[in-house]
User: Which sequence fits this backbone?
C-alpha cells in the first residue's frame, strides 16, 4: 500500500525474514500450549511438548489383570495380553523389576524363577506362564517407541463440563455492554476535551491522566460497600449486570478518554473549522465527522476493552459474585481446576477456548480497522 | 437456555441503548430548549448558553463514572492509609513509617523501577519495529494477528504458557520447558530461570513485553499509516534508504503516538500484578508494588491501612509521568 | 469410552441446571454402613424450615464441589431449605471482600483458622451454641485439640467456640510404591532413625529416596512448611508447637530452627532429592509425586497430605500401586507419643438464620460425614461414624490415624497470621532451599512477624 517494499526490492527479503522471526518468537509459546492441550494428561509433565510431534521412546509400567484372567493351556497356567493395550508402538525391552526395567530385549523369554516365564514381543503381546497358578496384578516394565498421539479429550472435558454454555452467555452479557458503554461515553468526553472550549478543560485532562494509574484493586472495597448499601436500600441483590457494566466502564474510561482524545486532537483542524463555519452544531460535528474519522481509534480501544473485560476475573467475582448462575467464563475455568488447582491439560485447553472469542473479535474488527484507516487517509 | 439468551440480549440492548439515549436525548433537549436558528432574537444568547452547557453534557457521564469509580476510592484510600488494619482507628503516619522501613517494600520498589525502565521501552520499540515491518508486506495483517495474539490471552493462560517455557528439570532428565531444552541441546546446564536472583525479574518482564508488544504494534501501525505519503515519497526521491526514512521521517511524525503508547504501557507496568502473582507471587525477590498491595489488602485477613498506603505510593510514583503528560497536552493546545 | 464420557458430561450439565437439588447419592435407609437413624432424626427435628434459603461459601471447587453438593442434597431433602453453594479460586480474598462490604454468606467454610480468627476479631463470626464445646470433647478423638482449634476471640476479646471442624486431611503421611519397595527389599521405617537409615540405603543402592516439590504458583513454598511443622511436633512437646504458632516462642528459637534443619537434612542434599536441591523449589507439588511411578522410579518416597492421590497418574490404584505410611516418631523421644499433623476446613456462621443453625446441627450428624466418606477424599475424627462407610481401605487407614492420634495439631502455617503463615513462612522456606541458612531465614520470618504488631 505504501509502496515502500516494492520500490526497495533488495531489502524485501530481509523484511520478510525479520517478520518471520518475529512471528515465530511470538507464537512459539502459544503453539506450545496448543500442542500441550492436545496431549495426554500424563504425557504433559513427562516430556516436552515439541517431542509430541515425533515418535517417542518411553519407559512405562503396566499391571497384569488379576488372577481371574488366568487360563490353563495344557499343563501351564497363562496370563496373556498386550502391554500397549491395543495402542500402536514397538516394544524394545522389558523387565520385571523397577531396579532393572529394561533387563530383557523384546521377544526374549525371561525366567522369573519358580518355573514362571515372561515373554513380551515387539508388538506388545505378553505372556506370563507358569506351572503353578499365577499371582495376578504383576508389574511389567517395558520400553516402547510410540507414534505421536493426540486427543481431544481435554477439550471435551472443558467444553461439556457443567454450566460452560451458561458462563459463555454470562461472559457475553458482561463484556459487550462493558465495551460499548465506555466507548460511547469516552468518545463524547474525548471530543469535548479535544475540540470544545470551556473553563477547566486542562484541569480535567490532567485529572483523566492522573486517574489512569489508580490501581483498581484499591477501588473494590469502597465500591462494593456502596453497592451493598444501594442494594439494601432498594431491596435487591447488590450483584447485578448493570453494576458490573458501570464498574468496567469506570475502570476503562481513563484509558479510553486518553487514547481517544489523543487521536481526536490529531484530526485535521480545517475540517472541523469549516464545518463550524457551515453552521454545524457540535453534536453534528461529532456524529458526522469526528466519529467516522476516529474509527481506527475506537476499534482499537474496543478490542482492548473487550479483551480486558472478557479475560477479567477479579472484577466479575467481586461485582457479580461467585454464584453458579452468574459465573463468567474465566471463573468457570478456574473452578474447573478443582480445589487444589493445576491440571495443566485442563488449563491448556481452557486457555485456548477462552482465547477463541477475543481472537474472533480481533479478526472481525481488524477489517473495520483497515476500512477506518482508508477513510481517514482520504482526509 | 433460550430464556437466558433472550434475557442476556435484552439486558445488552438495554444497557447500550440507555447510554446512547442519554447523549441523543440530552442534546435534543438542549437544542429544543435553546434554539440557535439565526433570525431569532435570542440566538446570540442561546449560542453562548449552549456553548457553555454542551461540553458538560458531553462530559457528564464520564465525570460521574470517573468520580464514583476512581476518584472516590482514591480519597477513601488516602483516608484508609492513616487508619489501622480494619480501617477504624486513626494511626497517623505509622503506616508510612512502617512502609519505608520494610525490606519487602524496598525490594518491590527496586524491582518496579527495573520494570519501568525495561518493559515500556522494549514493548514500544518492538511494537514500532513490528508495525513498520508488517506494514510493508502482503501477509502483514496475518503476521500482526499472530503478534497481537498474546493480548487475547488471560493471565492465567499466560502463566501456563510460560511455565512450559521456563520449566526446570534437573540435568539429565527430559526437559519440558523449551528454554532449558534449547540450553541443554547446545550443551549448557539447565537453570531454574525464575529463581535466579535479579535476572528472574527479566524473565518475568519478557512475559509482559510479549503481551504488550501487540498493543504497541496496533496503535503505532495506525499512526504510521496516517503519515502522509508525500513526505515519504519526497524522501525516497532524495535517495534516503529504508532505515533513514524510518528514523528520520516516520518516527518524528508519530512521536506523539509513541509517547501515548509508552505512557500507557508504563501505567500497565505499575498496575501489573497478575503475572508476578501467577508466576512467583513475589518470591525469589521478584515482588512488585501492585502485588505487595494486593497481598496486604486481601491476604490473610487483610490490612486495609497498609494496602492503601502502598496504593498511594504507586500513585505518587506515577506523578512525574502525569506531569509530563499534562505538559505535553498543554503544549499541543498552545500550538494551535 | 468417549461416548460414555460425553453422555456423562451431558448428564452433568442437566444436573447443574437443576441447581444443588440433585438426587440423593445413597438411598436413605439402604446400607448398614450408614447411620440413617441420625438422618431421620435430623429431618424430624428440623421440619419447620421449608422454603428458607441458605448461602454457603466454601473452598471446594471442581470434583470436591460435586462431592460437597452430594452431602448438601441430604440437608436439603431433610429440611426443605434451598442451598446456594458457591466458591472461588481466590476464596480467601473473596470472603474478606464480602464480609467487609457487608454481604457475607450465611455460612462460610475455610481451611485457614488464622483467617477465621481475623474475621472473628473484626466481629464477622457468630459464636456457636455453648454446648458445642462439650460436644467436640465427647465426640471427636483428641477432643481438646479440636476445641482449642475451634475457639476464637471475638471483637470484644471474649473467646468462644465459633467454628466447627468438618473434613480433615492428615498431613503426617509418606507415600510410596509398594512394588518398588518390594523390588528393592525396603521395609517401612517405624522411626525417624530408620527413615534416615533407609534414605541412606537407597542412595547407596544407586536410587534417589525423595521427591520434594514446593512449587504452587503464588503459594510456592507451602509444602515445606508441612515438613517443618511435622518435625516440630515430632521433636518437641505440643506446647512448643502452640507457643510457636502464637509467637510466644519466637520463630528463631533454636527449637524451631532445629525443625527447619531436620527438613533441610533431606531437601538440601542433592543426593536425597530427585533433581537435586535446585529442583525442590521449582518442581510443582502436583507434579512431584509422579516420580514415584515412573520407570525406573525417580524417587521412592513422597511426604504429602491425604489429598495427594488426586494428582497421581491416571489409573493408579491405591493400596496396590501406591500406599502410605505414617511419618514416624523418633525412637529417642517415646514420651511424645504419636502426634499427627493435619489440616482441614472449619464451618462458621457469618450471617445467622435458622437454616444456618440447622446446618451446623446437620454437620454433627454421622450421616453428613458418612455420605462423603463413602465417596472419596473425606476423613473425620468423629467417633460416632461407622468406619466401614469409608470408600476404600486407604481412607480407612488414614481415618484410623486420626482416631488413634494422641495429639492432633492443625497445620501451623494456617493458624499463624496470614502474612506469616501464607507469606513470610513460604518465602522463607523457598529462600532456605535456595541456600540461606536456617537461622537467617527464621530470623527474617520473626522480623516480619514483629512488623505486624
Assistant:
Amino acid at each position: 500500500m505504501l509502496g515502500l517494499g516494492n520500490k526497495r526490492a533488495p531489502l524485501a527479503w530481509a523484511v520478510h525474514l525479520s517478520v518471520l522471526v518475529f512471528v515465530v518468537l511470538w507464537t512459539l509459546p502459544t503453539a506450545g500450549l496448543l500442542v500441550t492441550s492436545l496431549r495426554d494428561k500424563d504425557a504433559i509433565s513427562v516430556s516436552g511438548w515439541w517431542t509430541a510431534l515425533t515418535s517417542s521412546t518411553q519407559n512405562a509400567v503396566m499391571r497384569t489383570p488379576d488372577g481371574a484372567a488366568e487360563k490353563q493351556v495344557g499343563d501351564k497356567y497363562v496370563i496373556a495380553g498386550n502391554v500397549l493395550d491395543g495402542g500402536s508402538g514397538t516394544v524394545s525391552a522389558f523387565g520385571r523389576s523397577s531396579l532393572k526395567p529394561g533387563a530383557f530385549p523384546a521377544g526374549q523369554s525371561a525366567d522369573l524363577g519358580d518355573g514362571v516365564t515372561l515373554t513380551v514381543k515387539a508388538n506388545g503381546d505378553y505372556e506370563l506362564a507358569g506351572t503353578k497358578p499365577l499371582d495376578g496384578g504383576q508389574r511389567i516394565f517395558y520400553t516402547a517407541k510410540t507414534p505421536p498421539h493426540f486427543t481431544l479429550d481435554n477439550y471435551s472435558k472443558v467444553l461439556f463440563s457443567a454450566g460452560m454454555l451458561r458462563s459463555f452467555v454470562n461472559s457475553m452479557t458482561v463484556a459487550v455492554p462493558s465495551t460499548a458503554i465506555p466507548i460511547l461515553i469516552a468518545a463524547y468526553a474525548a471530543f469535548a476535551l479535544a475540540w470544545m472550549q470551556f473553563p477547566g478543560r486542562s484541569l480535567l485532562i490532567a485529572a483523566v491522566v492522573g486517574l489512569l494509574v489508580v490501581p483498581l484493586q484499591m477501588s473494590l472495597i469502597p465500591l462494593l460497600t456502596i453497592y451493598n448499601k444501594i442494594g439494601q436500600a432498594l431491596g435487591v441483590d447488590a450483584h447485578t449486570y448493570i453494576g458490573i457494566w458501570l464498574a468496567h466502564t469506570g475502570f476503562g474510561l481513563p484509558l479510553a478518554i486518553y487514547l481517544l482524545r489523543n487521536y481526536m486532537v490529531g484530526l485535521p483542524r480545517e475540517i472541523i473549522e469549516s464545518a463550524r463555519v457551515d453552521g454545524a452544531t457540535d453534536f453534528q460535528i461529532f456524529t458526522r465527522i469526528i466519529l467516522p474519522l476516529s474509527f481506527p481509534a475506537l476499534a482499537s480501544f474496543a478490542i482492548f476493552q473487550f479483551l480486558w473485560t472478557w479475560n477479567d476475573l477479579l472484577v466479575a467475582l467481586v461485582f457479580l459474585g461467585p454464584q453458579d448462575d452468574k459465573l463468567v467464563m474465566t471463573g468457570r475455568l478456574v473452578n474447573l481446576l478443582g480445589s487444589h488447582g493445576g491440571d495443566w491439560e485442563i488449563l491448556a485447553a481452557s486457555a485456548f477456548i477462552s482465547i477463541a472469542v477475543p481472537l474472533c473479535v480481533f479478526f472481525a474488527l481488524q477489517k473495520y480497522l483497515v476500512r477506518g484507516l482508508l477513510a481517514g487517509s482520504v482526509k | 437456555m433460550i430464556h437466558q439468551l433472550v434475557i442476556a440480549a435484552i439486558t445488552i440492548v438495554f444497557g447500550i441503548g440507555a447510554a446512547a439515549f442519554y447523549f441523543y436525548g440530552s442534546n435534543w433537549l438542549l437544542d429544543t430548549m435553546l434554539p440557535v436558528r439565526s433570525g431569532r432574537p435570542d440566538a446570540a444568547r442561546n449560542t453562548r448558553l449552549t456553548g457553555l452547557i454542551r461540553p458538560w453534557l458531553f462530559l457528564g457521564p464520564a465525570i460521574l463514572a470517573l468520580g464514583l469509580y476512581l476518584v472516590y476510592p482514591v480519597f477513601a484510600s488516602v483516608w484508609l492509609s492513616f487508619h489501622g488494619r480494619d480501617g477504624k482507628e486513626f494511626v497517623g503516619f505509622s503506616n508510612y513509617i512502617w512502609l519505608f522501613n520494610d525490606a519487602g517494600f524496598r525490594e518491590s520498589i527496586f524491582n518496579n523501577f527495573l520494570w519501568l525502565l525495561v518493559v515500556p521501552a522494549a514493548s514500544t520499540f518492538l511494537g514500532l519495529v513490528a508495525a513498520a515491518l508488517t506494514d510493508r508486506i502482503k501477509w502483514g495483517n496475518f503476521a500482526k494477528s499472530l503478534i497481537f495474539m498474546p493480548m487475547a490471552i488471560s493471565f492465567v493462560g499466560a502463566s501456563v504458557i510460560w511455565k512450559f517455557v521456563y520449566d526446570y528439570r534437573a540435568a539429565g532428565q527430559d526437559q519440558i520447558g523449551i528454554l532449558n531444552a534449547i540450553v541443554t541441546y547446545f550443551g549448557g546446564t539447565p537453570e531454574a530461570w525464575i529463581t535466579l536472583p535479579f535476572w528472574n525479574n527479566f524473565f518475568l518482564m519478557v512475559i509482559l513485553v510479549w503481551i504488550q508488544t501487540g498493543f504497541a504494534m496496533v496503535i503505532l501501525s495506525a499512526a504510521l499509516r496516517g503519515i502522509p505519503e508525500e513526505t515519504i515519497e519526497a524522501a525516497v526521491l532524495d535517495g534516503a534508504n529504508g532505515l533513514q526514512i524510518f528514523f528520520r521521517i516516520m518516527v518524528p511524525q508519530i512521536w506523539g503516538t509513541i509517547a501515548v503508547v509508552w505512557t500507557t504501557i508504563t501505567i500497565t507496568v505499575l498496575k501489573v500484578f497478575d503475572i508476578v502473582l501467577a508466576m512467583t507471587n513475589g518470591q525469589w525477590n521478584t515482588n512488585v508494588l501492585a502485588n505487595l498491595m494486593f497481598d496486604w489488602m486481601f491476604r490473610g485477613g487483610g490490612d486495609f491501612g497498609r494496602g492503601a498506603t502502598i496504593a498511594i505510593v504507586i500513585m505518587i510514583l506515577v506523578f512525574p509521568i502525569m506531569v509530563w503528560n499534562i505538559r505535553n497536552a498543554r503544549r499541543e493546545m498552545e500550538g494551535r | 469410552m468417549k461416548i460414555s464420557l460425553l453422555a456423562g458430561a451431558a448428564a452433568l450439565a442437566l444436573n447443574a441446571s437443576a441447581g444443588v437439588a440433585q438426587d440423593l447419592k445413597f438411598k436413605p435407609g439402604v446400607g448398614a454402613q450408614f447411620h440413617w437413624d441420625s438422618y431421620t432424626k435430623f429431618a424430624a427435628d428440623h421440619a419447620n424450615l421449608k422454603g428458607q434459603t441458605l448461602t454457603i461459601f466454601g473452598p471446594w471447587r471442581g470434583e470436591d464441589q460435586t462431592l460437597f453438593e452430594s452431602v448438601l442434597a441430604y440437608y436439603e431433602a431433610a429440611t426443605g431449605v434451598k442451598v446456594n453453594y458457591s466458591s472461588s479460586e481466590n476464596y480467601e480474598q473473596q470472603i474478606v471482600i464480602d464480609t467487609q462490604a457487608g454481604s457475607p454468606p450465611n455460612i462460610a467454610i475455610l481451611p485457614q483458622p488464622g483467617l477465621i480468627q481475623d474475621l472473628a476479631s473484626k466481629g464477622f463470626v457468630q459464636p456457636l451454641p455453648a454446648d458445642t464445646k462439650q460436644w467436640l470433647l465427647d465426640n471427636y478423638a483428641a477432643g481438646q485439640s479440636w476445641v482449642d482449634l475451634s475457639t476464637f476471640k471475638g471483637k470484644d476479646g471474649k473467646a468462644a467456640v465459633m467454628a466447627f471442624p468438618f473434613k480433615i486431611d492428615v498431613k503426617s503421611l509418606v507415600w510410596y510404591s509398594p512394588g518398588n519397595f518390594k523390588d528393592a527389599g525396603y521395609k517401612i521405617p517405624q522411626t525417624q532413625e530408620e527413615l534416615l537409615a533407609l534414605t541412606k540405603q537407597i542412595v547407596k543402592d544407586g536410587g534417589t529416596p525423595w521427591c520434594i516439590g514446593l512449587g504452587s504458583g503464588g503459594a510456592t513454598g507451602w509444602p515445606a512448611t508441612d515438613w517443618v511443622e511435622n518435625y516440630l511436633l515430632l521433636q518437641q512437646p505440643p506446647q512448643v508447637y502452640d507457643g510457636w504458632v502464637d509467637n510466644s516462642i519466637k520463630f528463631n528459637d533454636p527449637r524451631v530452627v532445629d525443625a527447619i534443619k531436620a527438613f533441610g537434612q533431606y531437601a538440601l542434599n542433592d543426593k536425597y532429592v530427585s533433581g537435586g536441591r535446585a529442583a525442590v523449589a521449582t518442581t510443582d507439588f502436583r507434579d512431584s509425586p509422579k516420580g514415584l511411578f515412573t520407570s525406573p522410579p525417580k524417587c521412592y518416597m513422597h511426604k504429602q497430605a491425604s489429598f495427594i492421590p488426586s494428582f497421581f497418574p491416571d489409573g493408579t490404584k491405591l493400596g496396590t500401586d501406591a500406599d502410605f505410611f505414617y511419618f514416624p516418631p523418633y525412637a529417642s523421644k517415646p514420651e511424645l507419643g504419636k502426634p499427627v499433623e493435619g489440616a482441614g476446613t472449619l464451618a462458621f456462621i457469618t450471617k445467622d438464620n435458622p437454616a444456618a443453625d440447622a446446618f451446623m446441627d446437620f454437620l454433627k450428624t454421622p450421616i453428613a460425614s458418612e455420605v462423603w466418606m463413602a465417596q472419596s477424599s473425606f476423613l473425620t475424627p468423629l467417633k460416632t461414624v461407622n468406619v466401614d462407610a469409608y470408600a476404600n481401605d486407604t481412607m480407612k487407614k488414614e481415618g484410623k490415624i486420626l482416631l488413634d492420634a494422641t495429639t492432633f495439631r492443625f497445620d501451623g502455617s494456617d493458624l499463624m497470621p496470614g502474612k506469616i503463615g501464607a507469606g513470610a513462612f513460604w518465602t522463607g522456606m523457598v529462600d532456605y532451599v535456595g541456600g540461606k541458612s536456617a537461622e537467617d531465614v527464621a530470623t527474617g520470618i520473626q522480623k516480619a512477624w514483629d512488623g505486624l504488631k
Remarks:
- Confidence is low (pLDDT under 50) at residues 1-7, 372-379 of chain A.
- The two ends of chain A are 17 Å apart (CA to CA).
- Residues 4-51 of chain A form one domain.
- The beta strands of chain A are 56-63, 71-73, 76-82, 90-95, 104-105, 109-111, 117-120, 125-130, 139-146.
